[in-house]
User: Fold this.
Amino acid sequence: MSAPELRVVRPGLFATIQDLGRVGYQELGMPVAGALDPIALRLANALVGNPAGTAGVEIALLGPALKVEAESVRVAVVGPMALRLEREGEPPAALEPYRTHTLARGDVLALGAVTGASVAYLAVAGGFALEPFLGSLSTYVRAGIGPLGGKPLGDGARIPLGRNAAPAGADVGLPEPPEYGGGPVRVVLGPQDDRFTAAAVETFLSATYRVGKDADRMGLRLEGPTLAHRGTADIPSDGLVTGSIQVPGNGQPILLLNDHQTAGGYAKIATVISADLPRVGRLRPGDPLSFRAVSVEEAEAIRRRQEQAIAGWIRAIRTVRPAGGVDLDALYSENLVSGVVDMRNADDS
Amino acid sequence: MTVRFTTAGDTAFNVEFGEGIDRPTNARVMALHARLKRAAVPGLVETVPTFRSLQVVYDPAATCRREVQAAVEAQIIPDDEAAAEGALWRLPVCYDPELGPDLLEVSAALGLTPERLAALHGAAEYFVYMLGFMPGFGYMGDLPAELERPRRTEPRVRVPAGSVAMAGRLTTVYPWESPGGWHLIGHCPVPLYDGTRPSPVLLAAGDRVRFEAVDRARHDALAAEVAAGRFDPETLRASA
Assistant:
C-alpha cells in the first residue's frame, strides 16, 4: 500500500504550507515567513489535536481540491471559506468551516473561495510527513524555500501525511468563529518616528488608509495621505519585524508581513502590535484601515488578554453532530453557498 | 558611550551604537550579539545584527520588554569591540564584461580602466557587516574610496545569482537571482546560498572576504564542478 497522502487534483490559486515561521535565522538574512493569521492556524491545529506549531495549508483566494489517499483523515478548516465534500456515488455536499471533518479514502475535499479575509487554514490530524528546513515547514515562495519545492501547491502535488488513519473520537468544532476585534489597528510608534515631521505622525494616526493592489505575503502597500520625512527617507539598513510600517521616499507607507526581508533601509514610522498581526494578515486589497498608537506596556497587556481569549476558544471546542446525522446547518449553508459562490471563480468580491 | 534603544512594537527593540556604517560601531553590535547568544535570556527569540544596531526579538507571550531590556543592558560592556574574529573566505571572481555587465560603464565613470577597477576591488579585504535583503546576501565593506559610486538610478529587474556587485562603499555577491540596484562587475561561480548544505548560507556577519580574480576558463571549470556537485565550498575558507 502506498504511503498516506493528500493529492492535489485541482490546484487552487495560492495555497502554501505554513507553520508559525522559520524562527531564529534572520541573522542569515532568512525571512521568518509562517502563517499570516497565526490564530486561525493555531485553532485549526487545536481542533485536530495537533501541537500549536504544526504546519497546515494556508489558503488564499481559492483553495485546491485534495483527494484522500489514506485509510481516513481528520481535517479542520478555520477561516471564512466555502468547502465541500465530493464522495464517490454521492452528490457533492457543502461542509462547514470551524470544525473537523473525517474523510475516507477516495474522498475529495474541494476547498473553495476564501471570502471576507485574505486567508483560511487547513490542518490535518497528525500533520504532514515532510522534512523541516531550518526547523520549519513554512514556505517562502520568493526564494523557493520550504517543503514541496517551496512553491504553492500545484496540480498533482502530493502531501505526505503523518498518519494513515484519523484518530479515534468524534468530530469537534468551535462554537463560533474567532473574534479579531475592530477599530483602528494598534501600533507602537517607532523605531524611527523621529525621522518624520510632527504633522506626518499626526496624519498617520488620523487618516484612513486603504490596502493597495500590491498586497502579498511580503507586505501591504497602503494608499492614503503621504507622510513627510524630516530630511531623507533612507537610514543605514536595520532590522525589520512583521508589522513594521516603513515609508520610502514617496511617502506612501508599506506594512510588512511575514515574508518581509530581514533588514531594510527606509525609516519606519510605527510597528503593528503583535495582537493585531493576525488582523492585518487577513486584510485584502481595498480594505480600509486606520491606526492608533499605544505604549509597549499596553501592547503587551493586549497580547496577554488575547492569549487568554485563544485559550478560552480552545477550551470551548466541543463535539459536533456525527457524520450521517441530519445537519440542518450544513443543508442551509449548502443551499446558500451553492447559490452565491462559484467554486472556480477567483473573484471573491 | 551612548547606546540608544528604539522600539519595534511589542516583539522587538533595537540597540543602536551609532549612526553610520563603520567598523568600530559594527564591532560593538557584533560583540553584544555574541554575548546574548551565550546568555540564554528567557523569552529572547533571536538577535539580528545590522550595520549599527542589534535587533533584539522576544516573545511577548513569554516575557516583556522591561525584563528583556534589563537582561540586554546587563550584557553591554563599555567599549566592547572584542567580538570573535570571523572566518576568512577567498571567493573566486571573474571580472569579465560578459559576466559583469556594468564593468565597462562603471570603470569609465570612475575614470579607471576595467583592469584597474578589478585590481582595486580584488586587492582589499572586506568585512561582512551584516546579512539581509535575501538569505545569504552579505553587505561587505569597505570598498576602496576610488571605487565609490552611488547605486544605479534604474535598478535591474533581474540580477543573476553569483553576480559580484558594488555600490557606495560596499560590495556583495548576489546569492539569488533577484532585482538589484548595485553595479555588476563580475561573477562568482560558487553559490553563497545552497539549500542542500547543512548550513545553507556560506558567509556570516563578522566574516572577512578576499576576492581572487580567475580567468573565464577557470570560472567555467569551477561552475561545472559546482553543477556536478563536486565542489566543496569549505575549500574557500582560508586558514586564519
Observations:
- The helical segments of chain A are 38-47, 198-206, 277-281, 296-315, 328-340.
- Chain A touches chain B at residues 23-31, 133-134, 143, 145, 187-192, 236-244, 261-264, 268, 271-274, 296-297, 299-300, 303-304, 307 (CB under 8 Å).
